[in-house]
Amino acid sequence: MALDLYSPTPASNSNPAEIVASIEHLLAKILSLLPLRSLLRFKSVSKHWLSLITNPIFTHLRNPNPNPPVALFLPIAKRQSFDFEFIPFRAEQSINPPFTRLDFTEDPSGIKIIQSCNGLLLCCSISEPNRRFYVCNPTAKAFRELPKPGIKVSNSICGMSLAFNPVESRYYNVVCVWSLGVEDRTNNAQFTIGVYSSRTDSWRLRGEGFTALVNFERGVFWNGAINWMGVGNGESLYFDVERHVFDKMPMLPLPYGWNSRSNYYFDESCDHLHFVEMRCPTIDFNVYEMKRDYSEWFVKYKVDLRPVVAANRDMILGRINPIGWYTFVFSVLAVVRGEREEDSFLVLQTPSRSIRYNLVCKTFENLHEFEGNMVNGSLKYPSINGFQYIESLCCV
């Protein structure tokens, strides 16, 4: 639907087409002032209203800047399901969680979150045989089950990644990487790629294989591409979703001796790609950002957690030796960029709580107390980044 949200008010002698355009403009202006929950209900009024509300131009009119994340989902693994702890980014702000369990898909085995991307969630079945994949809008409690790629790859899928930019289009892509089960002359595994388009509801398979030493399970959509970190000393890659081409990412300027990646945070926030390396016993570290032309990583923020440790003694695990360093227990759950630079912050996990740490002002506050008795010196959510929650009107 062509939508001109800036149509002027027609003169009294305007033709019917101009009058209709004016009414469309007025309706869009009125709807743009309504809260998101009301807009979700109004999407069911008619196909016309649905098309208008989900139009990227309307989305931009309502929010000139992309919606920022307002909370995190943290998965709680159970025997046959995943529950979720919901952590708003403001301690004083009350936000009702859109769900505590992903049960609206009616998948018999239950589902878990793989990735969060600009308001949508990529999810999959918990059980391995005949695994299903879904794209969900948690705000609208809507989902779409993805069709199979057309070949038997479910048991050899190495990673699925969601690519979605609501500012540019209402449609999204899903990138699937799977193993071909063969090796090249250097005994490196061969992979290939398929791309699903919600516009056509179909897969496009990329025929040729490639080799890589990459963690395909942790793909991040940024700058029109899916980005993956290398494993160990492997090179990091990105895949341009529109052009269907690969390229290498530059090496990280890590401190001397840090030549491999083990415990790290890698994600996007408000159109910025970040990397954080966490090495015990270090409590001061850098937040790196990638330049938009992929020319280099640079240090965006320097973090010193000594004041946080002083106020949260459960972060101290003990000494490596009687005269050596302390070891510390924490992780980075999220790096969140604010509309203003001074509003950017980290979400930290300690054994007992989550903490919001301002990256510019260096202030911090408690966000959420974790329930249950934690084992001394352990984290409730080890080896995990949080899944960001962004309120969205988008259809799946």
- CATH class of the largest domain, anyone? Mainly Beta
Largest sheet: 4 strands, antiparallel
Distance between the termini: 17 Å
Helix content: 10-25%
Spatial shape: globular
> What is the CATH superfamily label of the largest domain?
TolB, C-terminal domain
Structural features, described:
This protein is mainly beta. The chain folds into two domains: 16-62, no CATH class; 71-389, TolB, C-terminal domain (Neuraminidase, 6 Propeller), CATH 2.120.10. Helices cover 11% and strands 37% of the residues. The protein contains five helices and 25 strands. The chain has helices at 16-32, 36-42, 47-53, 56-62, 306-311, and strands at residues 71-77, 82-88, 111-117, 120-125, 133-137, 142-145, 157-163, 173-183, 189-197, 202-211, 220-222, 225-228, 237-240, 245-248, 264-269, 272-277, 284-290, 297-304, 316-319, 326-328, 331-336, 345-349, 353-358, 364-369, 387-389. It has a four-stranded antiparallel beta sheet, with no helix packed on it. A four-stranded antiparallel beta sheet has the order 7-8-9-10, with no helix packed on it. A four-stranded antiparallel beta sheet has the order 11-12-13-14, with no helix packed on it. The longest helix has 17 residues, at 16-32. This is F-box domain-containing protein. Pfam families: F-box, FBA_1. Residues 25-60 form the F-box domain.
